[in-house]
Amino acid sequence: MSTLRRRTFAAGLLAAPGLTAHAQVDLDVPFVVTPDHVTRAMLDLAAVKPGDFVIDLGSGDGRIVITAARHYGARGLGVEIVPDLVDKSRDHARRAGVADRAEFRVQDLFETDLQPATVVTMYLLPDVNMKLRPRLRALRPGTRIVSHDWDLGDWKPDRVVTIDVPDKAYGREKLSRLYLWTLPPR
Ligand SMILES: C[S@@+](CC[C@H](N)C(=O)[O-])C[C@H]1O[C@@H](n2cnc3c(N)ncnc32)[C@H](O)[C@@H]1O
Question: Which of 35, 56, 138, 155 is deepest in the core (most CB within 10 A)?
Fold first, then answer.
């Protein structure tokens, strides 16, 4: 179980295409997809390449890990608490021909072992990012972290980029902000 008090984002969850009512689960973050061009920008920002191992925390329909495997030659793991989304992700990975390099697990992201990662991606919420921060700080030197829209408090990012998202459903700004941190040498 998460150390955070779970919030219920049932409305957002049930609005997700293809999800059925029995999939209702208490979530720390609602299901909102990263648009494809923003997914590419996140992976570009992290300079993902063959040999990388990408962990997406709260992997939704699997698009970040699948794109990393399909277009960047990486391997990866998506952890997601909604079983229906994990089923969909596995199906998408099979169709994309990357099921051997893109694994998906039903798991609470607060219980995920992050140590195998060379890249961690996140599209979460500010308080969830802050709860994860001590574990992110303990990652191996050289590991890159990319967060969509939310920073890590006073941990200064190495780069911030903005991407136009004209049809963005949330927030007043029609853009996404991407933050990059690279773990320094110990
Ligand atoms: C904003 S969506 C991001 C989905 C995907 N990473 C993307 O960028 O398209 C956040 C995801 O986190 C999942 N989630 C929420 N709480 C979680 C938890 N405690 N453990 C694992 N996944 C969680 C939600 O079901 C949702 O799919």
Answer: 56
| CA 178 and chain centroid, separation | 12
Any residues with Cβ below 6 Å from ligand 1, and which?
2, 27-29, 31-34, 56, 58-60, 63-64, 79-82, 85, 108-110, 123
- For 45-69, the pLDDT digits (tens) are 999 999 999 999 999 999 999 999 9
Q: Counting Cβ atoms within 10 Å, is residue 59 exposed (0-12), middle (13-18) or buried (19+)?
A: buried
Instruction: State which of 4, 31, 145, 163 you would mutate to test the pocket of ligand 1, scoring each by most atoms of that ligand within 8 A of its C-beta.
Output: 31
50 touches 27 (CB < 8 A)? no
Q: What is the pTM of this model?
A: 0.92
